[in-house]
Amino acid sequence: MKHRIIADYHTHTRYSHGRGTIEDNVRVAHDLGLKSIAITDHGFGHIGFGLKYRDIEKMRKEIESLNQRYPNIDILLGIESNLVGLDGTIDIPENYIDKFDIILMGFHKAVMPISFSDAKELFIKNALSLFLPIDKGQLRQQNTQAMINAMNRYPIKIITHPGAKIDIDSKMLARHAAKRGVCLEINASHGFMTTEYVKIAMREGASFVINSDAHHPSRVGDFHRGIEIAMAAGLEPEQIINAEIA
Ligand SMILES: [Zn+2]
Ligand SMILES: [Zn+2]
Questions:
Q1: Strand pairing report for 3-5 and 74-82
Q2: How buried is 13 (Cβ within 10 angstroms: 0-12 exposed, 13-18 middle, 19+ buried)?
Q3: Digit-coded pLDDT (tens) for 165-214
Q4: Which residues, at least 6 apart from 189, have a Cβ–Cβ distance to it below 8 Å?
């Protein structure tokens, strides 16, 4: 079965460390005939290139005016937030949650944790576990539980590239995501989730989304690698929120 992807819910711009403007991304998505695009720059806690609080209002205005100028495509203001605490805290303050049309959450290394103990458990231990005899099974459970806590606390729509940069229990994550209506991303840039992970997650009833994670406008709507993974895993378009049967 052929998959046609009609929305790109994960794209970066200059507001974090992408190369293009919001309009550059929108133009490409529009010309490809996508029905929707989300602008999802990195969360406020990302060191070096996280979103700035002062830019949010400006981004909203830009998106409002672009939505008028490009009526055939729905443009969303989103954010790729970071997990910053074992209790599931993400790097969006409560009073900013409503400012976004769509919230993505992923694990990234270069972020400010909420406390020293969270830094130790979430970031230092995961980094050291690559070459020190740390209990990997316990760490994996702890990582997964932190992600589940985040899903319970916030209106997260998509978990970006699960399994990338941090070890996750895919089955447990997928089961909880399915229960909460959260989608798991097949990332066309990183190639995460892998086909194996997708197969495990689909058995738990998870829904998926294929995104470009474009950091350059020319990559917006490039779903190629994600579609390959989805097809190799045997996913049907009904299991992918942004797919249509071609
Ligand atoms: Zn990411
Ligand atoms: Zn990203």
A1: unpaired
A2: buried
A3: 788 999 999 999 999 999 999 999 988 888 999 999 999 999 999 999 99
A4: 212, 213, 214, 215, 219, 225
Nearest-CA neighbor of 208 among 176, 239, 172, 244? 239
CB 186 within 8 A of CB 229: yes
**41 CA distance to ligand 1 middle (Å):** 9
Residue 206 DSSP label: -
Domains and CATH numbers, the chain: 3-220+235-245 (3.20.20.140)
Distance 202 CA to ligand 2 centre (A): 23
Measured from the alpha carbon of residue 107, the closest ligand is 1
Name the token pair of 135.
């209990």
